[in-house]
Amino acid sequence: MLHPHVPISSLGALRCSPQNFSSFACRYIHYDGRNRLSNFWTPAQSKKDASLLKEDGHDLLIRAGYMRQAHAGVFHLLPLGLRVQDKIERLIDKHMLSLGASKVALSSMTSEELWQRSGRLDKGRGNEFFKLEDRKGGKLLLSPTHEEEITTIVANAVHSHKQLPLRLYQVSRKYRDEARPRQGLLRGREFVMKDLYTFDATHEAALKTYEIVRSAYRAFLDELHLPYLVADADPGNMGGNLSHEYHFASASGEDTIIQCDSCGYSINEELFIGRPDASGVELHGAEQMTQSYMISKDRKTLLCVLYPAGSELNSQAIKAVAPNTDFSVENSRQVFADGIKGVTTERIFSVLCDPRTEHAAERVLATGDLQRQASSLGATFALNLLEAKIHRQKILLTKARTGDRCHHCSEGKLHLHKAVEIGHTFHLGTRYSEPLDLRITDATNKQALVHMGCHGIGVSRLIGAAAALLSDEKGLNWPFAIAPFGTLLVRAGKTSAEDVDALYDMLCSEGMDAVIDDRADLPLGWKLNDADLIGYPFIVVVGKAWSERKAAELQCRRHGVKEQVVASELLARLATLSRQL
């Protein structure tokens, strides 16, 4: 019979010496069913030269042995990383169960034909697909998302309003051929996502479902004990007209969230359009005003935008007034002038004025300068004055800045936060049910389209974002709910291995997730530094105080805790602290 502690060296492996601990530790295989670092594979890497680079969350995930890069934007998860991902998935399962959702696992391959039917194959995503072709010429895609597939499945199975509501979700790999994959797990070509798809018989029922899902998302994020932002968002290529994003604030984030410090107004900068009541002082001098030029997509209109100097134009606002504007052209005046030759159709010079610069603009217009510009550039219609309005309400043409007054409450001030998106909820309506023919017989025995919702959580992104958000100069620092192990037990001094095993068994019997660092070849200081790098929420050092009074040293880096706790109180203390992690 094999002994429960069998060193690999006795099976023919190389025996390592203590002086080699900085390079590798001797591995042992144990058969007692306990989590042990001598069993667990953690292939750490050497630290980068601190004088050259500051490590970010992605660097630490690589160095601590959570993952390895396979290709640009593609990563392998190693045992530590997989434990984090599994914990996130279990937490997702818990909150999806609270919604009455059933879990599915859809294929990573989908047909081009379905995406053609939905209208998304060539709309905005054309270059982002990984495309395949089978031996018979069938055209396939590696799925970046699964709305088309799930809608088709439900359309073939659900035919009556009595079969609704229906909520289906999956946690699966997705694929997108990013032009510039970056920031590790935050912007990859292969990634793991949770997608929840909801199906309701009426618009009103779908909106109620949407709010229920939003509540579940907040409950999920609350369990992570990380500060998050919820913002109104642009549905984009997904379709629909109601959407919210869920973000972690992060200096490395690619999104900007605008929040009011008084009324709670929160919106993605991409969707923000300001109102004049938040504008501050109206400008009266032309010296406080600047102008920019843009050209229409058909190249027949040159747009001159007048706005306060020192501000940045908001393309979303300009698009709302002049939807045909092409923002990709750098020298619009030159492009407009170059198009004079051979043109017989009317060419327009339009002026769009921010409400704060109306008086200053009147002074400029009175000089005739803009009229002369229009004539010199070949405009056949001298001036076309546009009003900065949406639905008869004036709008600002510039982006929000920290300190601007909130136009929702007129009392609070706006604050801008860089953020990483980790979740998104969409009310889709009939965006997919109509082209894919998902219909039911309603309560009046008539045919009706099903109303849908799609709600995602970026599992891979959450790993990368949480790592970046909590890391410090010592290493990673995981939320308790998703840490690879909640508590690390380390033996010190002459404490017996049996005592550590007994403490481990006590913690696990009460549902605590623990691991023992029993790597005999490594000194205590190295183990504690390694524990900080990996980011365990709690470290319990079982040393001299254990033999004296059955006490251990409890460390919690996020709380700055380092204290002696007797064994009988350890569980309660861990439970108290974990509720704040």
TrEMBL record:
EC number annotated for this UniProt entry: 6.1.1.15
Domain Aminoacyl-transfer RNA synthetases class-II family profile, which positions? 68-479
Q: Which family does it belong to?
A: Belongs to the class-II aminoacyl-tRNA synthetase family.
Its GO CC terms are: mitochondrion
The protein's organism comes out as Recurvomyces mirabilis
InterPro entries documented for this protein: aa-tRNA-synt_IIb, aa-tRNA-synth_II, aa-tRNA-synth_II/BPL/LPL, Anticodon-bd, Anticodon-bd_dom_sf, Pro-tRNA-ligase_IIa, Pro-tRNA_synthetase
Q: What are the alphabetically sorted keywords of the record?
A: Aminoacyl-tRNA synthetase, ATP-binding, Ligase, Nucleotide-binding, Protein biosynthesis
Q: Which reaction does it catalyse?
A: tRNA(Pro) + L-proline + ATP = L-prolyl-tRNA(Pro) + AMP + diphosphate
Which protein, by its recorded name, is this?
proline--tRNA ligase
Q: Which GO terms describe its biological process?
A: prolyl-tRNA aminoacylation
- Read off the PANTHER family from this record: MITOCHONDRIAL RIBOSOME PROTEIN L39/PROLYL-TRNA LIGASE FAMILY MEMBER, PROLINE--TRNA LIGASE
Q: What class of enzyme is it?
A: ligase
